[in-house]
């Protein structure tokens, strides 16, 4: 009886050991398969989108079409620049009055909106190399023959877009706090006011005034060019703490001027 029990115990032990060995072998194969399995690919981090501040009522540089898409000379220039730099951009319509603050606060990464490079603005932003040269123009009713130069506006009600170089020019002639200066959110609004007789003249960027008159033949407005108006360089603005981005913008801008892509865009909007 004791011998039979001993044999039975030895048999159980051998069986348990064999089962344990099978279990270890199975675990080893599972671990081996797990080690051989390729790691799941890591999801690529989404590319950064650079936010570009533009004014949406400043044709032909930037304006919204019927589909509410921002289009224009500045938009086309920035699209080519972005490709050359290798970045993705999104255009953000922003009132000109607040466009510099939006950049400084980090809400925007770049500005392109027919922005004149001035010493005062250089204190808060960094500008690219100039990409466009413009001047101011005076808009008056077509039947007005008295206004031939800027000094003729001294006694008149003059409209201008707030915060622009046209605004600064009017202040120099009429006085900084003159009640005769009527400021508007956009140049088209100022020109509409001129059409209705609310102001006697408007001072604004010449390309914008001429574009408005050309596309509104019933406005009955004309332009006056004062030879004393200074030439103005437009630049692309970035934050002062982003010299790397500025260098990339200048490099891409130089490439555009060298390969003819900038000239092609200019011809499309302003002729050869």
UniProtKB/TrEMBL annotation:
PROSITE patterns found in the cross-reference section: PROKAR_LIPOPROTEIN, SBP_BACTERIAL_3
Gene3D superfamilies: Periplasmic binding protein-like II
Ranges where the Solute-binding protein family 3/N-terminal domain occurs: 49-272
Domain Ionotropic glutamate receptor C-terminal: 49-272
Oxidoreductase as UniProt keyword: no
Range of residues in the leader sequence: 1-25
GO cellular component: cell envelope; membrane
An annotated Gene Ontology molecular function: ligand-gated monoatomic ion channel activity
Subcellular location as annotated: Cell envelope
Keyword annotations: Signal
Family: Belongs to the bacterial solute-binding protein 3 family.
Protein name: Basic amino acid ABC transporter substrate-binding protein
Lineage, highest ranks first: Bacteria, Pseudomonadati, Pseudomonadota, Betaproteobacteria, Burkholderiales
């Amino acid at each position: 009886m004791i011998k039979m029990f001993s044999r039975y115990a030895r048999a159980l032990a051998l069986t348990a050991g064999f089962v344990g060995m099978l279990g270890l072998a199975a675990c080893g194969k599972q671990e081996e398969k797990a080690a051989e399995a390729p790691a799941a690919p890591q999801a690529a981090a989404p590319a950064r989108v650079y936010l570009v501040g533009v004014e949406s009522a400043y044709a032909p540089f930037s304006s919204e079409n019927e589909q509410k898409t921002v289009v224009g000379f500045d938009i086309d220039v920035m699209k080519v620049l972005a490709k050359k730099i290798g970045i993705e951009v999104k255009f953000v319509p922003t009132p000109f009055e607040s466009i510099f603050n939006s950049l400084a606060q980090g809400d925007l990464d770049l500005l392109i909106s027919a922005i004149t490079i001035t010493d005062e603005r250089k204190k808060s932003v960094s500008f690219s190399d100039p990409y466009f040269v413009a001047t101011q123009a005076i808009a008056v009713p077509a039947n007005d023959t008295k206004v031939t130069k800027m000094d003729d506006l001294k006694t008149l009600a003059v409209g201008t877009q707030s915060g622009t170089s046209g605004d600064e020019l009017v202040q120099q002639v009429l006085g900084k706090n003159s009640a005769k200066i009527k400021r508007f959110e956009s140049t088209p609004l100022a020109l509409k006011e001129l059409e209705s007789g609310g102001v006697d003249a408007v001072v604004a960027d010449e390309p914008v005034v001429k574009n408005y008159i050309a596309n509104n033949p019933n406005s009955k407005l004309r332009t006056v060019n004062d030879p004393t108006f200074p030439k103005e360089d437009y630049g692309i603005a970035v934050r002062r703490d982003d010299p790397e981005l500025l260098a990339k913008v200048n490099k891409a801008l130089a490439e555009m001027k060298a390969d003819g892509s900038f000239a092609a865009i200019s011809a499309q909007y302003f002729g050869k």
